[in-house]
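Listing S7. Sequence submitted for prediction.
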Amino acid sequence: MCVVINLNAQCKEHSEEHHSHHDHHRNEIGIANAPVYLFNEKELAYGFHIHYMYNFEDSKFGMGLGYERITNEHKHNTFGIIGSYRPIDKLSFSLSPGITFEDEESSNIHFALHLETAYEFEINNFHLGPVLGLAYDPEDYHMSLGIHMGYGF
């Protein structure tokens, strides 16, 4: 019985060390670069987004702000509030409702919704990995597959 209790205590201690080693930084600044496919226009364009995320302590959830730019002829801009969830250490899912507009029609603002998933490889405070995004606005749907880079602090 003493051996079992001792082994259990060692497993718990190791588990806590392992957990604390993989906690994510409280704050993150990130950027994603990706070709974007616009379904209605049937074309590819370059897109990027930047974001700031705050990750809640002892939680798999975070929230932040983001901006997306698609550099096609319409010069698409989206600003959104981001909610994120990490079901496992390196995988994140994000949902971002926001507003979208084009440079030429900046007063013509529409609702937008972005969904994103990323898988991250960490190197100290930096992380890098693939990102897949899907987005909706009243004029089009678009999808992107690219690289996410971030810095945690």
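Caption to Listing S7: primary sequence and predicted structure tokens for the chain studied. Helices lie at 2-21. Residues 67 and 79 are 5 Å apart (CA to CA).
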